[in-house]
């Protein structure tokens, strides 16, 4: 039921806008037929009386057109809402045509009426130029089509700021290639420890061997563990090699 009401409201709205523009156009032409201006009321003598009902129809057509346009905007779906922008070209192209018509066919006869020609050209430009942007955007909204020129930058930007996929963590000595947006971790290699050999110690000269090992340990060539192992082997196997 709600969808039916919205459909009826949108149809009434668009029909009311068209009726209001037509009423405004006909009221305008009735004034142009008597010279393009008129007046009613006041203490002065009036030479150009307004056609009957024009003084009320002109403001009624403007206010009514706005109300019908608001009704259409509320009831129409989001896809059809860009049609609202056609009200501007419809209004100014209609009024511009009236000006041009009476510019080349003035009621008093004679040549071209400059007073109608200038506003006619301005109104045609004001109504026609926006159609360059309104029609493509309205067509895209109604059909759901996406312009490739707009889609390409959007795709590039989405790829630029996309969250990178998780890359494998480089372990010690691994050569895995880093993924996007990942700073490669430098490969760190630890040199193999230099084997420590204890030469033959003639006739159990353990003291000199221990002194040599202590000297190597002080210079940092042997770690604490290596020093302890070498010292234990020198004591346990005097005269041998480790």
Overall SS class: mainly alpha
Q: Output mean pLDDT.
A: 78
State the total count of DSSP E strands: 0
The count of helical stretches stands at: 8
Estimate percent helicity: 55-70%
- Describe the main β-sheet briefly: none
Distance between the termini: 98 Å
Tell me the fraction of residues in β-strands, as a range. Answer: under 5%
Instruction: Provide the low-confidence segments as ranges.
Output: 147-151, 171-176
- Order of helical and strand elements: HHHHHHHH
Rounded radius of gyration (Å): 47 Å
Shape: rod-shaped
What does this structure look like?
With 242 residues, the protein is mainly α. Among the domains are: 2-35 and 50-142, no CATH class; 202-236, no CATH class. The chain is 57% helix and 0% strand. Helix 1 packs parallel to helix 3 (87-104), helix 3 (87-104) packs antiparallel against helix 4 (114-128) and helix 7 (206-218) runs antiparallel to helix 8 (224-236).
What topology does this entry show?
Layout: H1 2-32, H2 54-75, H3 87-104, H4 114-128, H5 131-143, H6 148-160, H7 206-218, H8 224-236
Helix pairs in contact: 1-2, 1-3, 3-4, 7-8
Question: Which terms would index this structure?
Answer:
mainly alpha; single chain; 242 residues; rod-shaped; 57% helix
Explain briefly what this protein structure is:
This protein is an all-alpha fold and 242 residues long. Helices cover 57% and strands 0% of the residues. About 5% of the residues have low confidence.
């Amino acid at each position: 039921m709600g969808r039916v009401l919205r459909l009826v409201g949108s149809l009434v709205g668009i029909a009311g806008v068209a009726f209001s523009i037509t009423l405004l156009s006909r009221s305008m032409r009735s004034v142009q037929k008597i010279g393009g201006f008129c007046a009613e009321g006041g203490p002065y003598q009036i030479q150009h009386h307004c056609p009957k009902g024009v003084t009320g129809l002109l403001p009624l057509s403007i206010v009514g057109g706005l109300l019908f346009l608001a009704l259409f905007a509320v009831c129409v779906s989001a896809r059809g809402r860009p049609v609202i922008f056609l009200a501007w070209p419809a209004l100014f192209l209609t009024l511009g045509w009236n000006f041009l018509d009476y510019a080349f066919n003035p009621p008093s006869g004679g040549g071209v009426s400059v007073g109608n020609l200038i506003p006619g050209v301005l109104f045609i430009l004001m109504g026609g130029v926006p159609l360059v942007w309104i029609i493509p955007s309205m067509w895209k909204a109604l059909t759901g089509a996406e312009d490739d020129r707009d889609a390409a930058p959007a795709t590039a930007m989405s790829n630029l700021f996309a969250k990178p996929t998780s890359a494998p963590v480089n372990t010690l000595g691994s050569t895995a290639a880093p993924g996007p947006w990942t700073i490669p971790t430098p490969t760190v290699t630890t040199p193999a420890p230099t084997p420590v050999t204890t030469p033959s110690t003639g006739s159990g000269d353990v003291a000199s061997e221990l002194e040599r090992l202590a000297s190597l340990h002080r210079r940092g060539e042997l770690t604490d563990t290596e020093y302890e192992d070498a010292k234990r082997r020198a004591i346990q196997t005097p005269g041998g090699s480790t």
